[in-house]
Amino acid sequence: MQPNDDGYSSMITLPFQFNLYGDLYSSCYINNNGNITFNAGLYSFSAGGFPAGPGFNGQNDTIMVAPFWGDVDTRISNGVSGGTVKYRLTPNALYVNWDSVGYYGMHTDKRNTFQLIISDGTNTDVGIGNTVSFCYKDMQWTTGDASLGTNGFGGIPATVGANRGNGVDFIQFGRFDHAGTDYDGPFGASDGISWLDNKNFVFNTTTSGGSSTQNIPPIASSTSLCDTVDVCVNELVDLDINFLAPEAGQLTMASYTIVPPLNATITETNTSPANTANLHLQFIPTVADTVNGGIHVITYTASDDGTPPMTTTVTVAIRVFYVAAPPPVITGDTVACAGQGVVLTASGGYQHYQWSNNWNDSVVLVGPGTYYVQASTGACILVSNTIVVHEAPTPAPVINGVLFNCGGEPAVLSTTEPYQNYAWSNGSHNPSISVGTGSYSVTVTNPEGCSGTSASVNVNSANSPTAGFIGNPNGTVFPGATVTYTNTSSPNGGTITSVAWSTDSIGNGNGNTFSHTFTVPGEYPITLTVTTADGCTSTYTYVQVVVPVTIIIPNVFSPNNDGENDALAFEGAQYYPNTSLSVFNRWGQVVYSSSNYKNTWRPGKDIPEGTYFFILKLINGDEYTGNVTLVR
After folding, report:
1. Is the pTM of this model over 0.70?
2. Minimal CA–CA distance to 239: which of 193, 285, 201?
3. Which of 20, 49, 333, 565 lies at 20 to 30 Å from 380 by C-alpha?
4. Mean pLDDT, residues 40-65
């Protein structure tokens, strides 16, 4: 498909019949927004949950199969592609790949990659007897801007599942609206998008009799179901499997057996009964687990409480190898000052190190926490002892005292709370110091031996001047006017040694006067900085307003985000304070109003193309009315 936003393919004729809960289809439409439909193409970018009847979101087609219904945007932005949507037909299957796709509007900082396959039940990629496969790589976003998302998350969740469109027959795997891997089932709270990473769901949408959704057995999902899992003695093994009960309200109970049993101690985390049951096994194989070829078969069984109950059974083969190398040993300090960390070292001689914080080296700098390291030798990954680093507080001293005194009196500095030792920047080791003009800091040590240094403070014991100036002519001027500004600052007992004028765009200057001829309307900040011989400074800023003689009235604008003529701009009006603007549609309804308009209105998608009437009033009493045309 060509790069687009909210687009869809022309009707695709399928060389097979697809059974969606008893309804047979021989054609479909691929929608850019992560789904296929059967009666018509679907532009809807905000997903609804399943089950859904006809007419959702303003379109009469919720009959869909949706591996990821979200606001996909594949347009090219600043030369960067938003990804691709590709499809392929075979005699018994339709393959659709959403490859590295971005999100609305034209964002590519996060991307999703996923696949849909539909079949008549005879395709081996889906599995004989199955009709749908959802497959995922890296999933990084959930929501486009127009669906109330921010930076790819929040707002209206994306939906994963299939829907017959009658409000009854459906399957839903979940709804997703944030980053992370959390998941509480298809019908709980919205879930973390990374839970989908590297998962594959295969299921059957055919029904018995063609009148209602079949009772679907639990669906297994794991990254260790495809082949024998090879592990080594002293290797930390994590096995994780999910069983989804796609029907709302159903609960799944998961269990396992291992034949022959492992001698290793197994830590089991089992969330069943739940709509989505998760079973997590963790163990470290022993030498005794290598006998008889080291083969151990794990049989997972999951049963739901449907009518009748349905059961799914899958097996995983574990092969345990012996390795002569000892596991690594961690040494290092177990007390860390907050924000400073400690160094942990793993014993050497291994090809690769993987710490529990994902650092890859034999030495790691860490803060408080629990750590272990896995080290590889050949094909084996060995796990070390566990070490716990405790946190000791790092002091954060704050200097307290009067930092500016204009009578030459010294400033008394101390810290806001007591410490065991002090080292001031002037060499004193007392809890408090009496100092004159200068910059000071202090380093303190607490009873745990952790040290911290304060931010520096500047002490000033001299008088400060008062900056000021007056312009001639004074006040608002028109283009062509020359204004001369004269310094009126007071030294307040000191001696002003520096007078500096600075502006954003019209240049800088020195001396007691500064002049400029203004040719362009606008607001020009004029800043005067005066400095005394004691180093005290004072600044005064006056904003010179130059108002235009005439206002340029537009007749057309195009808020299409191309960077040109996107806003309704009355050139010159932005320089007048409290300019009011009201915009009406052809029926006299107000579509926009502002009491201080600054040429910033960019209508959204909800404001259609057409001619609109406006009333623009300036603070000087001038009023402009007329028509303007909005085109996209």
Report:
1. no
2. 285
3. 333
4. 80
The amino acid present at 186, given as its one-letter code, is P
CA distance 175 to 493: 71
Q: Check residue 54 and give its pLDDT.
A: 64
What is the average pLDDT score of the chain?
90
The rounded distance, in Å, linking the Cα atoms of 285 and 287 is: 7
In the predicted model, is pLDDT for residue 16 greater than 70?
A: yes
- Closest of 30, 51, 32, 29 to residue 40, by C-alpha: 29
Range list of β-strands (E), 323-385: 330-332, 335-337, 342-346, 352-355, 363-366, 369-371, 373-377, 380-383
Q: Which residue bears the tokens 């502006």?
A: 503
> What letter does residue 477 receive in the DSSP assignment?
B
Give the DSSP H or E segment for 316.
Answer: strand 311-321
Q: How many Å separate Cα 206 from the centre of its chain?
A: 38
CA distance 152 to 132: 27
CA distance 33 to 6: 6
Residue 406 DSSP class: T
The percent of residues above 90 in pLDDT, for the chain, comes to 62
The identity of residue 178, as a single letter, is H
Q: Which neighbouring-strand residues pair with 241?
A: 279
Q: What is the CA radius of gyration of the chain?
A: 36
458 exposed, middle or buried (CB, 10 Å; 0-12, 13-18, 19+)?
A: exposed
Contacts of 608 (CB under 8 A, 6+ apart): 630
Please state, in angstroms and as integers, the Cα–Cα distance from residue 104 to each residue in 1, 76, 395, following that order. 17, 11, 46
Average the pLDDT over 18-40 and give the result.
96
Can you tell me the distance from the alpha carbon of 222 to that of 378, in angstroms, rounded to the nearest whole number?
26
The predicted pLDDT at position 406 comes to 65
Helix (H) or strand (E) holding 175: strand 170-178
Q: Which of 492, 488, 596 has the alpha carbon at shortest distance from 537?
A: 492
Cα 15 from Cα 624, distance rounded (Å): 64
Q: How far does Cα 218 stand from its chain's mean position?
A: 32
Q: Where are the beta strands (DSSP E) in 53-146?
A: 64-69, 72-73, 84-90, 93-103, 107-119, 132-139
Specify whether the CB–CB gap between 84 and 100 falls below 8 A.
yes
| Cα angle value 282/329/356 (rounded, 5°) | 45
Least confident of 51-65, 90-104, 521-535, 543-557: 51-65
* DSSP conformational letter for 425: T
What does the alpha-carbon distance between residue 126 and residue 22 come to, in Å, rounded to a whole number?
19
Residue with the bigger pLDDT between 422 and 339: it is: 422
Q: What is the DSSP string of 499-567?
A: EEEEESSS--EESSEEEEE--S-EEEEEEEEEEETTS-EEEEEEEEEE--SS-BPPSEE--SSSSSS-S
What CA–CA distance (Å, rounded) separates 136 from 67? 9
Q: End-to-end CA distance of the chain: give it in Å, rounded.
A: 23
Share of the chain above pLDDT 70, in %: 96
